[in-house]
Specification:
Oligomer: single chain
CATH class: Alpha Beta
Largest sheet: 8 strands, parallel
Helix content: 25-40%
Number of helices: 10
Strand content: 5-15%
Order of helices and strands: EHHEHHHEHEHEEHEHEH
Strand order of the largest sheet: 2-1-3-8-7-4-5-6
Number of strands: 8
Shape: globular
Distance between the termini: 6 Å
Length: about 300
C-alpha cells in the first residue's frame, strides 16, 4: 500500500514571521519523511487544487470568506491577536482546504485509500463565522461536508488529538448526527471549550464526545482514555470515513502544550483508528496536520503517524 502525501510548496508562502505557526514546521516534517528512504518510496506525492468558495461555504458563512480575502488583499497582518496573515494567506488557506478535498477524493476510490496532508494554516479552531487560533478555514470540516455532498457518505468520524480543543469543528457539527466529533485535549486550556458536558444539541446530541485531560496526564492514561472512547464511538457510530485532525502539540515537549504523548503513542493511536477504518470504512482514513510547534520533535511525530497509516 502507498499513502498519498498531499503537499504544495505554496503552503510556505503563508508568511507569519516569528509566529509559532510558521513555514519551518512543514520543512521539518518534509525533512523527517525524506530521511526515511523506505518510507518516502511509499508516499505518493499529490498536489492539491484550491478549494472553491462553494466548498468552503459548506462550513463557513460567505461573509467570512470575503472578510479573510479582504484582510489579506489589504496587506493586514492579523485577523485577531493570535492569528497572523500575509497577502498570500487567503490563497494558501484555500489550498489547505483543497488538500482535504484531495484526500477525500483519494480515500473514496473504489479500493479505498489513505492520505496525510502536510498543510497550513491549520483549521480546527475556525468556526462558522470566525477565523481564530491560527486557523482561517476548517479543513477537516470542509473535507467531511465535501465527502457527504459529492460521494453521499452517510457517517463521518472526525478524531481530533491536538492539544487544543477544536471548538470550530465542534460548532459546525453541533446539531448534526451525520458527523461525529471526538476530541482529546488539555483542559482547561485555549480556547476554553471542550468540557465533558459538551455533547451536541438537537439531532446532534450525543454525537460530540470530549475527553478533557489535565496538563501532565500520563501518556498511558491518555491513550487508554482515547482507546476506550473509540470503542464507545464504534458501537454507536460505525463510520464510513475517518478524518483525523492530527495535531502533534499534544506531544511531550511542545512549547504550546502540557500533555505527555511520545511518537510511539501517535503510532499506536493511529493503529486504533485504522482498526475501525478497516472494519467499517474499507480502510478509508485521512490525516490532516493541525498543531505541533517543537521543530526538533514535530518531524518525528508526523513520521510515526504516517508510518502507521501504511
Amino acid at each position: 500500500m502507498s499513502i498519498q502525501l498531499i503537499y504544495d510548496s505554496k503552503y510556505l508562502e503563508h508568511d507569519t514571521g516569528l509566529h509559532p505557526e510558521n513555514a519551518r514546521r512543514l520543512e521539518a516534517i518534509l525533512r523527517a519523511l525524506d530521511s526515511d528512504e523506505s518510507l518516502s518510496r511509499r508516499l505518493q506525492q499529490v498536489r492539491p487544487q484550491p478549494a472553491a468558495n462553494e466548498h468552503i461555504a459548506l462550513c463557513h458563512r460567505e461573509d467570512l470568506i470575503h472578510e479573510i480575502e479582504s484582510i489579506c488583499r489589504r496587506g493586514e497582518t492579523f485577523v485577531d491577536v493570535d492569528t497572523r496573515v500575509s497577502p498570500e494567506s487567503f490563497d494558501v488557506a484555500k489550498l489547505a482546504a483543497g488538500a482535504a478535498i484531495a484526500a477525500v477524493d483519494g480515500a473514496m476510490k473504489e479500493e479505498g485509500g489513505r492520505s496525510f496532508g502536510v498543510i497550513r494554516p491549520p483549521g480546527h479552531h475556525a468556526t462558522i463565522s470566525t477565523a481564530m487560533g491560527f486557523c482561517l478555514f476548517n479543513n477537516a470540516a470542509i473535507g467531511a461536508r465535501y465527502a457527504q455532498k459529492k460521494y453521499g457518505v452517510e457517517r463521518v468520524l472526525i478524531i481530533d488529538w491536538d492539544v487544543h480543543h477544536g471548538n470550530g469543528t465542534q460548532e459546525i457539527f453541533w446539531k448534526d448526527s451525520s458527523v461525529f466529533y471526538f476530541s482529546t485535549h488539555q483542559y482547561p486550556y485555549y480556547p476554553g471549550t471542550g468540557s465533558a458536558g459538551e455533547r451536541g444539541a438537537g439531532k446532534g446530541e450525543g454525537f460530540t464526545l470530549n475527553i478533557p485531560l489535565a496538563a501532565g496526564t500520563s501518556a498511558r492514561d491518555h491513550r487508554q482514555a482515547f482507546t476506550d472512547a473509540l470503542h464507545e464511538i464504534e458501537r454507536k457510530f460505525p463510520p464510513d470515513l475517518i478524518i483525523i485532525s492530527a495535531g502533534f502539540d499534544s506531544r511531550r515537549g511542545d512549547p504550546l502544550g502540557g500533555l505527555m504523548l511520545e511518537d510511539s503513542d501517535f503510532a499506536e493511536m493511529t493503529k486504533e483508528v485504522l482498526r475501525i477504518a478497516e472494519k467499517h470504512s474499507h480502510g478509508r482514513a485521512i490525516g490532516l496536520l493541525e498543531g505541533g510547534y517543537n521543530l526538533d520533535l514535530l518531524g518525528g511525530s508526523v513520521k510515526s503517524h504516517v508510518s502507521a497509516l501504511l
